[in-house]
Structures are given as structure tokens and as C-alpha cells.
Amino acid sequence: MKTHVLFNLFATFLLADGLNIEDSAGQFFSSGHTNNWAVLVCTSRFWFNYRHVANTLSVYRSVKRLGIPDSHIVLMLADDMACNHRNPKPATVFSHKNMELNVYGDDVEVDYRGYEVTVENFLRVLTGRLPPSTPRSKRLLSDDRSNILIYLTGHGGNGFLKFQDSEEISNVELADAFEQMWQKRRYNELLFIIDTCQGASMYERFYSPNLMALASSQVGEDSLSHQPDLAIGVHLMDRYTFYLLEFLEDIHPASKANMNDLFKVCPKSQCVSTPGHRTDLFLRDPGSVLITDFFGSVRKVEITTEAIDLTDPIKEVEERPANGDIHKEMHSYVDQLPVSEIIHQKPKQKDWHPPDGFILGLWTLILLVFFQTYGVKHLRHIF
Amino acid sequence: MFLSERRRGQLAALSIAAVVIIVGVPLWWRTTETYRAWLPVSQIKELAKLQLQLSADVEAVFARGTVTPEQQKKVPLTQTQEEERAIDEDTALRYRYETRYRTATIMEEDALNQPSAAEADLSLHTLSESPCGSLVVYVIPESSSLLPEDVNVYIGQRRTALLRIGPQMRVGKTLEQLLAHLEPRIRQVLQVMSFSHNDITAALSDRVRFSPDNKESIADNMRAFKSSPGYEITFSLLNPDPKSHRLHWDIEGAVQTYIQPLLTKLSPVANFSIDSQTLYYAMLGVNPRFDTSRSAYTLNADSLAHVINPVEARLGSNAASSNPVLNFLLYVPDAQHSPLYIQGRKKQEVPSNAFHSPRWGGIMVYNVNGFYGSEPEFPVDININMAKVMGVFLAQLRLLLGVQSSTPPPGFLVARCGSTGLADWELDRLMWSRSVENVATATTTITSLAQLLDQIGNIVINDNIAQQVSSAVTSLQLAVAELEAGNLGFALQYSKEAILASEKAFFDPSLLHLLYFPDDQKFAIYIPLFLPMCVPILLSLLKIVSEARQRRREKQAKKD
């Protein structure tokens, strides 16, 4: 009897071990994605919003360190802090006080900078509706097997996020943009992280499948900033992203940490606000989703088992005869500036425009005063 | 005549109200309306319910010894089978197989008398050229020596197959029994050479989220690139140690001889553009371990995944289009780490010394320590054997483009593909799945675009978008019709046109203006403009009405 039990135990142990090997091979297929993209956006201008740029750059740094190449990252920074006139240490952006960590680095590649970071451009990047002249580095060329990480930071409110201090994106527009991405199968799974005040309102309206969202604060709460640096004079990071960066520094490309660990980042004791997350639209269980599924770029590989037997010798590329028979096509650049036209320019015929604005107002004022003084009845006497 | 003051006031109020209602409101409506060109919505709704019919033509030729002379007189005949499969409520497939039976001609008999199957295949396809999408199956007697013992079907390099009759058909069977025996076997050959239900449902993955039961089909699905009008292929030579190795590779000649024939053959499917580069001091991101048993450095399968990312950052691309890029890297290890071998998951040897990544490309490690000679003087001049290299890259290219089919059923022998690297029936197979994929993607794009434009009422639909949508709809209808008729080449062409037009319409930059105005914002804009104007008009109209009613009451009172 005892030997029977022991034998059973032994057999299950062997079976489990066998399954383990199968499992690691099978992990190839568990996530269903073959490439990773990241869209990192900082939406605020002005020197005192230094921390938003530092937030975005620290996520950029982590994502690059874990393997996503620059060609797969769309980085949008609304203002230039590294070369700002008020930066006492130019060409640096620090995330820890006492200038411990420079997140600007040597090889940062900003795709949308300054005034190019607008709601319109952001939505164009997401939906893919860019003009044909847009270069590859400014496009999100994802396909149906791409996992995308989207990180937004800035100033926000209940249901909106402020861009550039002049416009806003609402949560409905964002949800519609994600739905359009889903319709065109532009993502396999999408992780949305937002670090703004009342950030949870931005993911309330999502309705497309395979979206997971994290926010730094609930509706009605403010996300707070972390520590100021006295030499630079501004707050360097926001709390949520600071602790997120600390968490990500411990992740390496072969790490097996999963999303449940990410949800625990920055509890209320550290963050003062309550971070929230939303996983009901996500098909897989968050415990089985690796951090590197979104933040890193672990490639799937397969060994090539077959090769084709090629026996033909290489055809010699025919040598062109070296005599002067060949007419080399003369190539030239198109005139960059039409110099001859500029020099001999005739003064342009200006089209007549009706008077506008100031002139119109001035004449109206004159007429009003005229009629007031003289009255309509007495005009008979004048004309 | 002089109207009283009150009368004049009433007339003024009434005329202002009339102007506002008759002229103002329509003018405001017309000027705030968005321009929406007409879209063929009803046709788009029809396309949403996709009913695809795929027709395949098979010619089954009976060789001598398979049919009796009386049966021979009844042959030639034609049989048609149809199979309906519904995928989900919006998508249904119908497969139509038309089989024409005939007996072999004398020249075909001579060809079948060749000693081996490969030679028979070679002489057979000099005899007849089967059009794209059709097959010819030669039925040979059971005793024939063309095929080895355990092989029942031989699939050639063009569009022919040799099928050996089963042992139960040996003696005295009627024609109907013979046909009943052959029909499922011919169907099986069709599924390997033309299309199978699994392939077609995988191609429809845009419409129907494909969840197959076995891991192999998931891997196949994830590995090949999606259908695209063009691809960019880049060959890179990585030399981390130029001080030791001076590498020469004739990439132009090699591409011209080995890769270009394949790409020319694939030109109905997509356009390809090729370029090449050499990278110096490009290291792999992983440290290989020294294996004493083989006295060589090894990279095991788990670390291969981390090789690609550091290299990719340095690769760059000169692609000006948004086409997917396939990267093929040839890595020559540095002198300290030579030779370098790749190990499989179970520590087995990999003869090709190469690995590939789905939807990205392939990497091959080429060891040059064999070229050193007796007393190497660094740097050593090395001419890379391009035939060997291109053999591996060609195999990887076939996998990544989706040409490679899964393992054939037992008893099947598939001929090695020729020097172009692509058999004709493999091309047909690719064309079937690409046509279906294009049609599925284009219909999804068009229907979702129509739905989007319907939902968001204030997106402007310009004329060019309407024109693209109409041409996409027309091309789709033509593609579906050609698939029904079995004209594979035309079907693929129309499906490509449909995809181009639908993508252009969907991703047009102008479809982004005027996105979302919440209702409270709309009220906030209109109320300050219209309310001050409307309040006096409304009040005076009310006053007119109440006075008229009062006068009528007085009149009534006077009468009584």
C-alpha cells in the first residue's frame, strides 16, 4: 500500500517535471505577441512642470533598458527641459534629488517635441491617420501581434487631460481612438498608464477588448509630486512614477514579475493618492501577464531546422564595357530656393479684401457719433 | 394709411420672427452642416456578411493498369463536390471541388515509365502547363515502382501529384467504387497542395479571432508576416572583429542568383525591395559559454531571445515606406569566441547554426576559424560561401513569408523545392490564403469605416474618400466573384486593389477633424448667441397672442 502511494507520488513528480519543460516551451505562445511598442507622452509646458518631463523620460529609460528599440518608441515631450534657460545643469533631466540619476542620457530620441505635441497629433499617431510624408520614426507601425504601452502624464481633471495649456483630450475621445485601433487590429494587448490628478477618470470610458489601465489617483484625488531639488528649484518627479521607476529598476529582461506586482506599486502610504487599475476588459488573467510583456521586448525565437540546398554558382554580374558609350544620367537636385524667381520678383497684385476688424469698427464708431449728433431727421438739411 | 403704433410694433415683431424662422434657421443649419459625400452603405452592409466560395479544379488522370478497358470508355467524366462551413454568424465558406477524370495520353504514359518519381515529374510537366490554381493528379497502379514502399502520394515541384491506388482496388471493382475510393484521397491531396479549412480560417483571422487547438498552428499564424503590398528585405553582415577578419561577401551576385528568382516568382503576391549593409564592431548582447565537450563556444536557446534587441538598435533602415522589414543577419564571431555554435532547447546540435524570430527576420552564425590556414596572419582574408548562407536565409525567408506548409500527412512525399526555392503549388497555396486574407481584411476595414462614419456624425467625408470606398467595394465584389469562378490570379489582383483602396480610405488624414463636442459645450456656445435674440421675439409673440385672445373675448362679450 505504501509503495503504491510512493510510486504514485514519484510518478506525479516526474509528470510535473515533464510538464515544466513543456511549459517553458509553451510560454512562447502564452502571450500571443511578437513585438512591443511604446507611446510615451508628456503634455505640459513650462519650467515648473519639469516633473512631467522627468516622469516620461524615466519610463522611456526603463523601456529602452528592457529592450524596446527607439524605432518602436514614440516619445512626445511638450517642452524641452534639458536645454531650458532655467536649467542649472544643461543637457540633463534628473529624477532623484541630489542629481543622482540623469534620465536624459546620451541617446534619447524625441519624436514629437514642443508644439508638435497636440491632441490632434497624439490621436493621429494612435489611429494611424498621418499624412503620407510622415517619417517612420513618427509613426506607430504596430500590427495585430503588437503589445503597446501607452503612458500619459501632465495635468488632468475629471474626464480630461490638458495638452500644452491650451487644449484638452477627453476620455471619450481616448476611448474612441482605442476602439478605432481595435477595429483595425493595431494592437494585441494594450497597457495604459496615466499619472495625473484624477487619472482614473481617463480609463472609465474604455470599451474595447484587451485593455489594461493603471492610474495614479482616483476621481476627486490629486496626484502629488515627490521631492524638490533645491539646486534645480522645482519638483523632480511625481510620486507614482517615482515608485514605478524604482520598481522597474529591479526588472531585468529575463524577469518573471507579473502585473499583480505592478498593481501594488505606490500604496496609499507612499503615494497619498490611491492608485487604481482596470482589468475587466483584459482577456488574460493579470497574474499571468509578465511585466516584460509590455515594458520589455523579449523576442520569440525559433531554431531554423531546414536549409535549402543551393548548387548553382553565382552568376557573374555583367561587367559594363568601360568605353565612353554609356551616357551617365546627369542627376541634379531640384532648386531648393527658386533664386531666380526671388530676385526678379514683380510686386504681387494684392486682391482686394473688404475692410475688416479695426477699420470697420472705426468707421462704425464715426457713423454712430455722426448720427447721434445730427439725428436722422436733420440729415435733410445737410445733404 | 397710417397704422397705429401698436399695430406697427406687432407687425415688426412678426416680421422679425418670420425672417428668423424662414431665413435664419435654414441658413444656420446649412452653414453648420458637415460635408458628407455619398457612400454605398447598402453594398457595404452586404459585404459585412461575407460568403466566400473557393473553387478548385483537379484533373485526375488514370494511368495504364488502374482502369479496365470497359471502364476506360466511361471515363472521361466530371464530378463536383461542395462543402459548406459556417465560421460565425457573419462569415461562411463554401468549398467547391471540380474533378475531371480522364485517361493518360501516350506521352504521359511514357513519362510515367521513368525510373524515379522525380524524373517522372520532370517529364510530366514539360507536357502540360496547368494554369494557376489547378492541379493534375496522376493515378498510378498499386504495383508501380515509381514510389517507394511506404509512400502513397508524391507531390511534385509544379502542380502535379502522383497518387498510388490502394490495395483494395486490385481486382474487379466497378467504376463507381473506384471513384468513391479515390475521391477522399484526392481531397486530401488538395488540402495539402491548395487549401485546407485550417489555412483558410487562419487567413480570416482579422474577421474571426482564430483560436486553434494545437500549438503548431498558433506558431504558424504568429510567424508569417501579414499580407502587405510590399516588403523590405535587408541583409546585414556583422563583423565584430575587423582586426582579425577581413570579410568579403558577394552579396549582389548572391541576391541576384539565389534570392531574386524567388522574389520574381512571388511578384503577383507582393513587391520586394532588397538592400544590404555591413556593420563593424557589432557584438551580440549575450556572452557565449565555452563548452569543453565540443571545445567550442555555445549559445543556448534561452539566451537567443536577448540577442536581437541590442543589435536591432544599430541596424537602422532606409525604408521610406511603411512596409514591414525583414532583417537577415550574418554574424561572424570574433577570433576569441570562435567557433560559436547554437544549441537547441534540448542541447542538441543545430546543423544550420541559425535561428529566426517571428515577424522579424533571421540570424545565422558563420564560423570562419576553418579558413585560417596553418599560420594565420591577422587580418585574415575570408571569402564567405554565399551558397551555404543563402540556403539558410532562403529557408528562413520561406518561413517568414508563410510559404512553408506544415508537415504533410503520413504516406506523403513532398519533392524538395527547386532552385527558385518555391514550388508552383506552394505559390498557389500562398495565393489562396493571401486572397482570402486580403478580402477579409478589406471587408473588415470598409465595414468598420462605415460604422465609424455613421456613429460620429460630424466627421467630414470628402469626395476622394467616397471614391476610394466605392472602388474598394467594387474590387471586393470582383475579387469574391473571381474566387467563385476559380480564377486565382485575378482574384489576388482584385483583392490587392481592394486592400489598397480600403486602407487609403480608412487612414486618410482628413478623417480626424471635428471629433467630439459634448452636448453641454454645444449649449454653452449657442445660448449666448441665440437667447438674447430669441427672448424679445418670443415675448412679443406671446403678447400678440394674448392680446388677440383678449380681443376675441371682448367681441364675444359684446355679442352676448
TrEMBL record, chain A:
Signal sequence range: 1-18
GO function terms (MF aspect): GPI-anchor transamidase activity
One Pfam family this sequence matches: Peptidase_C13
Catalytic residues, chain numbering: 155, 197 (nucleophile)
Annotated Gene Ontology cellular component terms: GPI-anchor transamidase complex
GO biological process, one term: proteolysis
InterPro entries for this protein: GPI_transamidase, Peptidase_C13
Transmembrane segments: 357-376
Listed pathway(s): Glycolipid biosynthesis; glycosylphosphatidylinositol-anchor biosynthesis
Keywords: GPI-anchor biosynthesis, Membrane, Signal, Transmembrane, Transmembrane helix
Family note: Belongs to the peptidase C13 family.
Subunit details: Heteropentamer. Part of the GPI-anchor transamidase complex, consisting of PIGK, PIGT, PIGS, PIGU and GAA1. Interacts with GPAA1. Interacts with PIGT; this interaction, via a disulfide link, stabilizes the expression of GAA1 and PIGK and links them to PIGS.
PANTHER family attached to this UniProt entry: GPI-ANCHOR TRANSAMIDASE (PTHR48067)
Protein name: GPI-anchor transamidase
From TrEMBL, chain B:
InterPro entries according to UniProt: PtdIno-glycan_biosynth_class_S
Keyword list, A-Z: Endoplasmic reticulum, Glycoprotein, GPI-anchor biosynthesis, Membrane, Transmembrane, Transmembrane helix
A biological process term (GO) from this entry: attachment of GPI anchor to protein
Entry's Gene Ontology cellular component terms: GPI-anchor transamidase complex
Residue intervals passing through the bilayer: 12-29, 523-545
Domain of life where this protein originates: Eukaryota
Topological relation to the membrane, as annotated: Multi-pass membrane protein
Principal location listed in the UniProt entry: endoplasmic reticulum
Pathway assigned to this chain's UniProt record: Glycolipid biosynthesis; glycosylphosphatidylinositol-anchor biosynthesis
Listed Pfam families: PIG-S
Subcellular localization, as worded in the UniProt entry: Endoplasmic reticulum membrane
PANTHER family: GPI TRANSAMIDASE COMPONENT PIG-S (PTHR21072)
Protein family according to the UniProt entry: Belongs to the PIGS family.
Name of the protein in question: Phosphatidylinositol glycan anchor biosynthesis, class S
